[in-house]
Structure to design on (526 residues):
């Protein structure tokens, strides 16, 4: 084997160019494999230190390192940072002019550029003639999950990267990502044709993030809670993720109106805004001119703001990858930070519709179900979250709402019977809210008109609050006793299992809805 450099050299580079005394966990092992010319897949959470894994070997290797990255803004930041450290680096993407491109290529040929960042679109052209003429020592593929349809951020341009191994059969490839469940992981290796790759998985645990879920809070109360939450930490900056652009703007307007006088400034960010309005909003947030950002998932890719103290999900996210990444924008400096996820039936229905209408129905439904299971979990949320990423947490985390309020089970048999029998008497033609209203004996005009007040179980659940009923309906869904028909009205159906339970009067265990006060004082800082 050709000797390409030693780990000692790598340590020298780390200290000399980056000023760090030692490698973080896994960085050294990863670099060692790369120096031995082996392929590597790196799974490391955002902020874990992925860049060092290829930037250090790039400086140890004699030739050029190509870095594929999908985000133009990120590319620019990285190259600027490298240049500031005295490292020859450049990028080729759609923002580069002809002259500049000629100069960069010339510098590459002269060996003065060690790291060349290339967008995946651009790579195809450059693979035809320019890149094969260079001594390429290493290829790094950032955001590698973009190659997988199973990932949450599939980019068609990424599928072309499969040909890299053919073009450079001897060059080690390192693929890096912050989000990949087990299935995506396998898919990345298959797509990139790297069956022999060494896989390194860093812990995804972020113990400094508290995890809380609030289900079925009515809109009015939700806003009230969020205001109290922000006022309890008036100096902290945070992000509120909303499902739609409209909601972002509405929530921002509400908060500005109600909290503006207390000196709290709130902005919004979504993909429907003009590019410079978006840039301004983002810069204002990063530089603490805006304290709270109401945003869609478009916000946050590559934002390196270390002192975000909290993240609220105003709606249920589509999948666990997105959720993990979004809460991960809080507490990047390691200081205790809070996350709250709000979710209700309406979110679930809306996301179900998106999933049903998407090209990849089955997969998106599966991902949504996993998300719902997390939100409905009765065990330590961190365990559920980490198990999604293939990690096992041995102990309770003591930093989530379930650990703080262990669930208590009760005999929900009668309650379930009432709900199922009402649903059957309504010919399984109603959605959850109508079912609850009938059970609670509402005098809504449409109920009286339809004659639903005549059924036997009308008002049989009047002693249970609307919100508690919503929680129970979700639990019945989770237990497979009822299911949602994905029709226009999201009507509920009793499953065969539910029918058996009813017919055989089988016992059903439910958990009591619990409450916590999100406006409570922020946790003591570490
Ligand atoms: P990722 O790409 O995984 O999100 P980065 O590569 O941006 O993470 O690294 C996150 C932060 O950690 C950066 O500020 C980086 O300089 C720092 N970092 C990485 N490796 C080390 C190390 N060995 N020692 C100290 N700091 C490090
Ligand atoms: Zn926990």
């Amino acid at each position: 084997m050709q000797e390409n450099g030693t780990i000692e050299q790598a340590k020298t580079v780390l200290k000399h160019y980056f000023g760090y005394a030692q490698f973080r966990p896994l960085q050294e092992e990863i670099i060692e494999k790369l120096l031995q010319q082996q392929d590597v897949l790196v799974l490391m959470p955002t902020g874990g230190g992925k860049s060092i894994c290829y930037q250090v070997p790039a400086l140890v290797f004699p030739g050029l390192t190509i870095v594929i990255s999908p985000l133009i803004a990120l590319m620019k930041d990285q190259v600027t940072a490298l240049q500031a450290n005295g490292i020859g680096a450049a990028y080729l993407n759609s923002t580069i002019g002809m002259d500049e491109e000629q100069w960069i290529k010339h510098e590459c040929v002269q060996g003065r550029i060690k790291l060349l960042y290339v967008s995946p679109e651009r790579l195809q052209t450059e693979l035809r003639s320019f890149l094969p003429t260079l001594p390429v020592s290493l290829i790094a593929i950032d955001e590698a999950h973009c190659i997988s349809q199973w990932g949450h951020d599939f980019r068609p341009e990424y599928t072309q990267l499969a040909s890299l191994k053919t073009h450079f059969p001897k060059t080690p490839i390192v693929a890096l990502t912050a989000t990949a469940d087990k299935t995506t992981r396998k898919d990345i290796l298959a797509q990139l044709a790297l069956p022999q790759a060494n896989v390194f998985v860093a812990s995804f645990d972020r113990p400094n993030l508290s995890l809380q879920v609030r289900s079925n809070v009515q809109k009015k109360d939700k806003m009230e809670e969020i205001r109290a939450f922000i006022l309890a930490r008036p100096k902290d900056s945070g992000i509120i993720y909303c499902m739609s652009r409209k909601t972002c703007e509405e929530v921002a307007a509400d908060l500005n109106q109600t909290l503006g006088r207390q000196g709290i400034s709130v902005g919004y960010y979504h993909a429907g805004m003009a590019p410079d309005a978006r840039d301004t909003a983002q810069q204002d947030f990063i530089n603490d001119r805006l304290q709270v950002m109401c945003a869609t998932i478009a916000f946050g890719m590559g934002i390196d703001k270390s002192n975000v103290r909290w993240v609220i999900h105003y709606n249920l996210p589509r999948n666990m990858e997105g959720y993990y990444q979004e809460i991960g924008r809080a507490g990047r400096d390691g200081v205790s930070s809070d996350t709250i996820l709000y979710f209700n039936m309406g979110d679930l229905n809306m996301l179900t519709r998106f999933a049903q209408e998407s090209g990849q129905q089955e997969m998106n439904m599966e991902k949504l179900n996993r998300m719902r299971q997390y939100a409905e979990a009765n065990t330590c949320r961190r365990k559920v979250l980490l198990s999604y990423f293939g990690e096992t947490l041995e102990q309770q985390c003591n930093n989530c709402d379930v650990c703080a309020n262990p669930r208590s089970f009760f005999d929900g048999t009668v309650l379930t019977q009432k709900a199922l029998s009402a649903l059957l008497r309504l010919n399984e033609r109603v959605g959850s809210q109508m079912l609850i209203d009938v059970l609670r004996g509402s005098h809504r005009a449409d109920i009286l008109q339809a004659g639903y007040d005549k059924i036997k179980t009308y008002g049989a659940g009047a002693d249970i609050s609307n919100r508690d009923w919503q929680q129970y309906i979700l639990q019945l869904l989770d237990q497979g006793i009822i299911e949602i028909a994905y029709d226009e009205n999201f009507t509920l159906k009793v499953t065969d299992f539910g029918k058996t339970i009813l017919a055989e009067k089988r016992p059903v265990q439910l958990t009591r809805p619990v409450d916590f006060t999100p406006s409570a004082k922020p946790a003591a800082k570490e």
